[in-house]
Each structure stands twice: as C-alpha cells, then as structure tokens.
Sequence to fold (286 residues):
Amino acid sequence: MQPVKPPRSNSMLPPDPVYTLKSDMGYIQHMNFFQGGTSQLLAATEKGLVYFWDLNTNRASCKKKMGEGILAIHSYDDKIITQEKSGIVKLWSVESDQSINSYECCGGHCKSITVGDTLVLPQEHGVDLVNKKTFEKTKTLLSNKENLGHVMALEKMEFESNTYILAGYESGDVILWDATEGKTCGDCKFQEHLTTLTFDSPMGRGVCAGASNAMQVFSIDDSFNISVKCEVSLPSEGCNIVKVRPDRNNSESPINQLRTCLRFYACVAHQNCIGDFINMHQTIYI
Fold:
C-alpha cells in the first residue's frame, strides 16, 4: 500500500491561536468540559493538578490537587473522575475536594473514555465497563486473541442506535466489541505500537497512529469488517493523538474531509509535544 503524502503548502502551518490560556500548569495530559457545558474547561496535568478555566473570562478560576500524574479527566453533575497513570481511578466531589470512591485499572498510557453513564477503562487483558456514578463494574470485554500487549487507545462507535467499543493494542490489533452484549464483532491488524485511535461513525471511517510516521485510515462496514483504506505519511515519527474534526463539509467526499482534518490536527509544525486537544464549535483547545 502506497502511503498518501499530504502536499507541502501553507495549509500545513498551524493556525495562530485566538487566545492563549497561560499559567504554571506544566504538561497537560487531558482536557474536558466541566458538567458537559462549554463555559468551564478542565485541564488535568502531569503533576496531578486540575485547573478550572472560565472560558467567559479566559482565566483560571481555581486549581485543585486531585492525584498524581492525571492521565484522563471526566465530569458529571458536581463530580469529577480522574484516571492516574498508575491505574488508580477516583471519583471526587468538587464541593468538598474529597475523593469519595475509587477503582483500579491497568496503569500505562491509555486514556479512559465515557459512553453515557459508563466509564470505559483499560485492563491488562481487556476492557472494563464501569458505572461512572457507583463505580461498580458492569461488564468486562475480552478477546480470545493472544499476545496483544497492553490496551493503548479506546474509542466508541455508534451504529443503528447501538454502541460499540474499539480498543487498539500494542501489537497493532484493533478489537471491536458490542458494548451491550459484550461480544467481539470484528478485529484487524494494523501497525505495531499504536498510541491513538479515532473513529467517525457518520463517515464510517477511522484513523489509527503510533510510533511510526504513518497514520492508517480504516473503514468498518455494516458487517463489522474492518479494513485499511490508505496510509497518510507524517514528516516525523510518533503521533500522540489524532481526532476527526466535527465541522465536516458535506459537499466534500469523506476521504477528502479526513485528509483535511489530518493535516489540520497532525500539528506537525508545532514544536512542543501536544498532550490533548478538544473542540468547541469553531475553537480547538490544544
């Protein structure tokens, strides 16, 4: 398969920031909006601090110590969920600044995701589905494939009102599960040492990337067959995160939209390591 090389042009340059939220945060590993709104941005740092950014004033309203090496952060109501690199997952009350529940998953670099009231967590040999309010495990998703290594990336997929979970492994295998029935629906072998995975359900297309300079575009059909469509070459090796941008142009073909978002989100001209980015309307927080 011949990799697709994005053309060298001004479109490769990163856009100038509309504004910059500056503080002594250090390395940010994950961001999320507080309580599902868009007025407060949570920034979780490598030092275990969580910064609450007021997007109306563009100032940090407060910062709280919520663990060590926070890898991912989620919220609902007045509660915050943190996942530490060590594997400890904690439920916090914002009002009391106290941890009120905990759960243990596999430590490493894989960030948890939420699907409704379900927290999806990596484990050594599979994926745990946990109620994010009670922290009780509802299901474990396992694969009968061997030598997969650790789970490195998680993503959800919506199809005909059902929810599915994609997991990318160190071995390069991507497994697809039915989240309701807990059964494996499909799998495919990609490049080894995957680090990031994204999927756009309306387009039926996804992208995975890892330690190499190649991002692989794949599709999932109605029978859950997963196939690689093409490869997109990056100027340098290693991709920490890739996402499909939500503001698609319906007049463009899906593959052209995907190439556009890859050029935009690869951030190849940024000199610093990017830990995460998040969309809000036409704004992207990096």
Observations:
- The first helix runs from residue 254 to 265.
